[in-house]
Amino acid sequence: MLIRGAAAATRLSGSTLMSSGARLFPASSAQANLAAAGRVLIHGNAMEGRDAAASRIGGVRRSSAATLAEKEQQKPKEQVAEGAEASGAVAVKRITSYWGVPTSTVMKEDGTEWRWRCFMPWETYQPDLSIDLCKHHAPTTLMDKLAYWTVKLMRVPTDIFFQRRYGCRAMMLETVAAVPGMVGGMLLHCKSLRRFEHSGGWIKVLLDEAENERMHLMTFMEVAKPKWYERALVFAVQGVFFNAYFVGYLISPKFAHRVVGYLEEEAIHSYTEFLKELDKGAIENVPAPAIALDYWRLPQGSTLRDVVMVVRADEAHHRDVNHFASDIHFQGRELREFPAPVGYH
Ligand SMILES: [Fe+2]
Ligand SMILES: [Fe+2]
């Protein structure tokens, strides 16, 4: 009886998956959710805004999107659960596939459908373009000097390989730039588990940085398509850099963060050169990719130049975060002792 019920539930849920399309929920509710998310983000608490928006959107989907037919089709499953509960047994639902976990259709503020799955409206932001781009951490200690010259040396082959092809250069460098945040965040995550202690927000900040860098890559991919030998280069560089940074972070997070701080300073320099080439007309100022318009909330009609401006501002924020992290270690303290700059854009 139980198995028959479960089999029926499987068949029905399968047919539901086959027949149901995108679930639309009232645009006004979605807009209110997005507006609420935006409001909270602007006031600085990105976590609360994100969670609030997610729970509101989830609530809307659960309460209004399921049709009567869908609810009817869910009945056999519920009967199995109720029956099992009454007899005190644990329900076993035999299924053959988990394919098609339902997702929500999210609407944009303008009423059109949100087209991205890699980021949601409540994760978008407008970077602070007024950030000081000229700040430079003067290397005084031997370790800082070592970090500084390591980065300067790394720049030599990069300059030779790419020369003034800044679009391609940006795309390739972002494949490397997205690694340190992920490695650092992962190691702090494991440390938090091992020691039964909070991270002070640093896991989130570093993983957010990695994701932000990956979004830079997803954006530049739209304007510069990688050639086969460039893909091969990324493959090799990633293999070396990931492992080197992993070991480096284990040995000295102070040094690792300082290296990233200087890498970000170099990135600011590279994007400034990119802007000069755009202004000279050496690089065509094409329209901004659609992904960039949504991710940085850029106005319609924005161009590649606007994209480079916001990416450069992102790099300046990464610079501050990583030099700050290195300074904390320099003082003999741990990152978790100082609140991480969550939502610092
Ligand atoms: Fe970047
Ligand atoms: Fe960066």
Automatic annotation (TrEMBL):
Single Gene Ontology MF annotation: alternative oxidase activity
UniProt subcellular location: Mitochondrion inner membrane
Cellular component per GO, a single term: mitochondrial inner membrane
A GO biological-process term: alternative respiration
Enzyme Commission identifier(s): 1.10.3.11
Family designation: Belongs to the alternative oxidase family.
Protein name: Ubiquinol oxidase
Native species: Kalanchoe fedtschenkoi (Lavender scallops)
